[in-house]
Design goal:
mainly alpha; 3 domains; two-stranded parallel sheet; 2 strands; elongated
Length: 254
């Protein structure tokens, strides 16, 4: 079997494959402008399959015409190119996207926020590590109603601890600070170190790796106890940080 025969067969099979469109679409050969709108000799056998040719120049003219608003000739109605079911389907698709595109954009914007990223993380964890549907639903309910707020609170708490530490060290570097206040500052820095250790431990306990271990237990009560303990730890640490911030303001201003 020669290459020429294979190529002819391929062209004919390709032309026949367009019959599935019921005459609404067909194979077309695009010629250079010099060849005009006729099938080249090596494609002439396709004419019996309804294959037509068009010149590249004609395509360019049609494209430029369609690109201009209100360029359709007067009295030309293109609606008869489509059946009523096709027009109805197009309208339904347009209605669907007009309804959902604003919601999809809002969802994408939410996912770019700190809260959105935490929600996405917890959702992925439950989808991956919860075996039964019941465990998945109970775990998602716990994580999304309690875990998200706790996680964000821990991140904020850690930022407050870091800010207090920076502020205290700035005071410590002040050469004009009175010797009598150095002892007070030293006590504050020591307390900051303690709460920093606690906050780091709490953040680690809410990390992806630790939560996966909790979820593998398959018991939502274990997760609830884990979050309750972290919440208690966080509340106590928040009180200590508030005290540190107050002492810094009283003794060192700002």
């Amino acid at each position: 079997m020669s290459f020429k025969f294979n190529l002819r067969t391929l062209k004919e099979e390709l032309a026949l494959s367009f019959r599935m469109y019921g005459g609404k679409n067909s194979l077309i050969v695009v010629n250079s402008a010099s060849q005009g709108p006729r099938l080249p000799p090596h494609y002439s056998s396709l004419s019996r399959f309804g294959v037509n040719a068009i010149s590249l120049e004609a395509i360019n003219i049609q494209y430029r015409t369609r690109s201009k608003p209100n360029s359709s000739p007067k009295g030309t109605d293109t609606s008869d190119q489509y059946s009523d079911p096709e027009i109805e389907a197009a309208k339904r698709i347009q209605k669907f996207w007009r309804l959902w595109i604003p919601r999809l954009r809002a969802l994408r914007s939410f996912r770019d926020t700190p809260r959105g990223r935490v929600v996405q993380l917890f959702t992925e964890l439950t989808n991956t590590h919860c075996v039964t549907l019941e465990h998945k639903l109970e775990t998602q309910d716990t994580l999304l109603t309690e875990g998200v707020e706790l996680y964000l609170g821990l991140v904020h708490l850690k930022d407050r601890v870091a800010a207090s530490q920076t502020r205290a060290m700035r005071c410590f570097d002040d050469v004009n600070i009175a010797t009598s206040r150095l002892e007070t500052l030293d006590d504050i820095i020591s307390d900051i170190s303690d709460v920093s250790e606690v906050s780091n431990h709490a953040v680690t306990a809410m990390s992806e790796a630790l939560l996966v271990e909790v979820l593998k237990s398959g018991c939502v009560q274990t997760l609830q106890l884990h979050l309750t303990e972290l919440k208690r730890m966080t509340e106590n640490t928040e009180e200590q940080v508030a005290g540190i911030e107050k002492r810094l303001s009283i003794h060192f201003g700002g």
